[in-house]
Amino acid sequence: MRIFEYMGKELFNRFGLPVPKGKVVSCADEAALAAAEIGPVVIKAQILSGKRGKSGGIRFANTPAEAKSIALELLGANIRGYLVEKLLVEEKLAVDQEFYLAVTIDEGAKSPVIIASNQGGIDIEEVPENRILKVHTDVELGMYPFIARNIVRRLGLDLGSQHGKELVKAILATYQVFQEKDAVLVEINPLVFSGEKVFAADAKVIIDPDARFRQKDIPYVEGQTETEKLAQDLGISYVELKGDIAVMANGAGIAMSTLDILLHYGGTPANFLDVVGGTDTETIARALEILLAKKPKVIFINIFGGSTRCDDVARAYAKVKKKGSGIQVPVVIRLVGTNQDEGWRILQECGIKAYTDMEEAAAKAVELAVHAPAGSSS
Amino acid sequence: MRIFEYMGKELFNRFGLPVPKGKVVSCADEAALAAAEIGPVVIKAQILSGKRGKSGGIRFANTPAEAKSIALELLGANIRGYLVEKLLVEEKLAVDQEFYLAVTIDEGAKSPVIIASNQGGIDIEEVPENRILKVHTDVELGMYPFIARNIVRRLGLDLGSQHGKELVKAILATYQVFQEKDAVLVEINPLVFSGEKVFAADAKVIIDPDARFRQKDIPYVEGQTETEKLAQDLGISYVELKGDIAVMANGAGIAMSTLDILLHYGGTPANFLDVVGGTDTETIARALEILLAKKPKVIFINIFGGSTRCDDVARAYAKVKKKGSGIQVPVVIRLVGTNQDEGWRILQECGIKAYTDMEEAAAKAVELAVHAPAGSSS
Amino acid sequence: MHQQVVLAKGMVLMAIIVNQNTKVIVQGITGKQGSFHTRQMLAYGTKVVAGVAPGKGGITYEGVPVYDTVQAVLENHQVDATVIFIQAAIAKDAVMEALEAGIGIVVVITEHIPIHDELEFISYARRKGAILIGPNTFGIISSGKCQIGIPPNQFFIPGPVGLVSRSGTLAYEIAKKLAAAGFGQSTAVGMGGDCVKGLTFVEILKLFEADPETRAVVLIGEIGGDAEEEASVYIKEMTKSVVAYIAGKSAPPEKQMGHAGAIIRGGRGTYQGKVKALSKAGALVAEMPSEVPEIISKLLA
Amino acid sequence: MHQQVVLAKGMVLMAIIVNQNTKVIVQGITGKQGSFHTRQMLAYGTKVVAGVAPGKGGITYEGVPVYDTVQAVLENHQVDATVIFIQAAIAKDAVMEALEAGIGIVVVITEHIPIHDELEFISYARRKGAILIGPNTFGIISSGKCQIGIPPNQFFIPGPVGLVSRSGTLAYEIAKKLAAAGFGQSTAVGMGGDCVKGLTFVEILKLFEADPETRAVVLIGEIGGDAEEEASVYIKEMTKSVVAYIAGKSAPPEKQMGHAGAIIRGGRGTYQGKVKALSKAGALVAEMPSEVPEIISKLLA
Asked: What was the ipTM of the complex prediction?
């Protein structure tokens, strides 16, 4: 779960990593006030996207009037698909040197990794690999100052200098945020030297959504559509796409494969929906209602029962069908696996026959979508 | 460094380990007020010693008047050599069952150890060994609920019961105090079941003095004589004894051995003083002044220079000799090791010849003490 | 049907990691998932010797004795493997309990475990020399011998194909298609769907390479991560054929984990990259799940 | 003088743990203790190849190059051992740095390190398979070959006696007395004065037992703890004679670590108990330091 820059900086502050003096504002007058207090400022649109600078989301103002006019322009604007609701008005630092610093998880090495470069700035991905340090840590050993000292040394800095010492502290603080806040990414680009001090000039922090139960102080950021939010509340994985075949599958792998196959047969999926293992009738029914609300041409349910049980899926279908307006679009159900016989029996009672082969069922769904009456799609 | 029971209980409270309702008081009226508020109470003398119960330091009062009269009796009293300055006035618990629980360090195993018994109470050392659980933890792995569950199970309790669950939590909290507060001992005897709940009815907590720099919230408890405190401030190790030969040595081993040898030759040491390795002239000079202030018959300095350097010791002697009233008692110095030649030279300038053999020097010190004029001893 | 594997005299049909003699315990046996899948495992013939459920020690479930802790089980039973059906928030405690007790095979079914917890127990498993399968896996099934986890087992029949998958349902899908084509599996292993995993493709492929029952291996991957690219390096050395299917061809590029993710992966993780790496290593890549049994048919004909 | 050890053809005089080829680095080389004892070590002939002092990398001290970190040293030198002269509050970081870098012998001179820190680095040393001597030790000296630490080295002359001690100054005392009586030491090891230790008596005794240069071992203990009682168990099996001296005969009983300490020690730790255990195991116990060379004289005459 990504959080806004200003939230990340609040975290940094709490862990002793200096950030530029700044204020979060949500109206232009506040921006002017902040600029009056701080002096020359940088005004940063708070959106969950990179490349803000290139998209005009990062601007400079020397006076409160300038700040106000920039804020008026940015607030409510749409940048890279995101509505700008808040701005971070920050002290404009005199930048002496820029670094890149991140802590994340290296899946292959199964361990945290610290990434650092003395070529910080917006185009870190363009920096040649030999200018980027990657230092893995041992989770049982944990983080130590000596690890940070080696990084600072390898970045070519004097460990005895004020900058060197500050950078050691900054690396330790960054790692601490990563560790204690269940982050999967803490990225600072750039980390800057300004005068004698080190500042995190940006903050990209992603918190492990599975650890939210123990990170209750992390603000919850909604970066999703209404439907995606609804799905998330149900504990299911949902992504909106642009096609006309609504898809439900169980398991990320089979859900992706289902989309691949629909496309293969010439269909276009309306969404990715993984009900995730182990859900019950009620959840699956609500997931089905989410799909119905999208008014697709066809709904394709592709279930291979494992921890998801076929009878639960069939019952969910039956439940939704009996409720309110029922199910008005064609539904193709492919249902095999755990408790499949019971599932089939329930579906049969509803007057629907389950497919057992997913390619066959996908082909049928595409056929139905192609021949659906015009206007039934959303 | 041992802390008072009430301080330990404050720690427990902070880590979520329930303690009986109570107040710390230092006058009898406060004791009466506390009893008025709490009801029937137990009044416990706050001294750094075990076996308080057997020595009359733990008493019961049903009324405020009773509490006052007991407090009057206890405050200012001397129990097991300690002056009673504070009392803990605590809710008298209805005790259903008593346990023993401790976390400490097993030197042999080089690891923490949890000790638990369902035979809690004052005489835990009388409990047969097979009724006492000892569970070592792996410092890299750390503490886990499953370790506590196994202990509770092996204590014969039902893990599904309220008591079982509370005890699991109590063990985890106790371990956390041990771990996070740099304790070398956290001992609860007894830990009691009272109704549905678990309470730490006593608290014996010893904090590693070497970790005081990072445990600044732990109150500092003075359980020493004036001289011992003075020595501690200098960073040297000092224990008062009853003899007439003041002793300074470097290293706990050689200091102990020095006392052994003095006794062997018929002398009686006035103290144990280990200047500890690496001290400088100033510290050694102040240590020597501490010994002089005790007005012994003889001072015996036994130094085998390692990180303590002979020249520093000799300079300290010279410095004290030149200062104020100088040195009025005979001093036997045995000085060998690092920089011994320079040390001998300095001593020679002061008109004193260093011994090189510690047994010979010890024998000389005893001889001088035995023949010292009466009245020169403290 | 496929040709029988020629066995040396006295040699029994093998499998990897688990077989008909593997003694299994279920941690979380009284929960909804744990109890349901214990019945399934027993029905499949898995030797489930005990269950663990703190506070419920002393009862029996489907004839299986239940204990309060793993240690209590080990005081009474020999155990080779454990399967974890414990809710995500406290799963680490259960995994550590099993590892600390010295159990050599730990199958972690639980999904949504915090990744920092996963890093810790994967690291501890390494230190203890234990095999950790998962987390967020369907488990492992050595066909006809032992099932540990949640796969719907009717499609797993004995045979010459080793199967390893990042996705549970895709593994079932392809196992079913293989079975329909007459090809059973020696063992099917769910690597787990989370971003860090105990056993990885390479480790599992090595076991299949050494297993005399396995004649070919099906590898089921997904976009994201670099497990398939890593696997390719080892596939080059293998004597047995590998058939791969990668899901996610049509998926939009995954939302990036900042620049850091890109730096770590160095451009790996895409469908095209994975297919290229696998093909170059000599694996046969299927475009659709239904092609997998077709390719296997040709290979093992 | 003592009889020369008969050596097999081509065999050099040995020692335990360190010898004339041991390449040593000094962590904290620019501090008061570190710089002083580096000079002493160099004077003794110890191969001090580098020093570490964060922020001072690039300078040289007494001809020894100084680096910012251990890793920086290892990029330029082969290293066998390190000696830690780093202040207590941050000593753990330095010890971990050495262990993580893979240095096999770590000598921790620093005293007053928090015991919880010591538990951690001792545990990590065990995991890394490294020898950790100390903390709060004078170090180790293989006479005439290599000194790592702070012993005043003029009394350590080559010879047939292995020496191991909990106390630094008592070790010097007895080494000096032995030297005066004509007995040098193969190696003298300071076990360290803190309540937990890296190497313990038993591990050191085993090395002496196996060392052809060592003909007898002097063990110097103290009251408290149970290291001597543990050592006794192994002394029983040794072929070489052990002479022991225990300090603290006259000390009042130590202030108890609650009941817990008593429970853990089970009554061990007293002077009488230690002497009894050692005597029973066949060790010869000296009453006074001066008796040690007398007993050694008889043994090696």
From this structure: 0.91
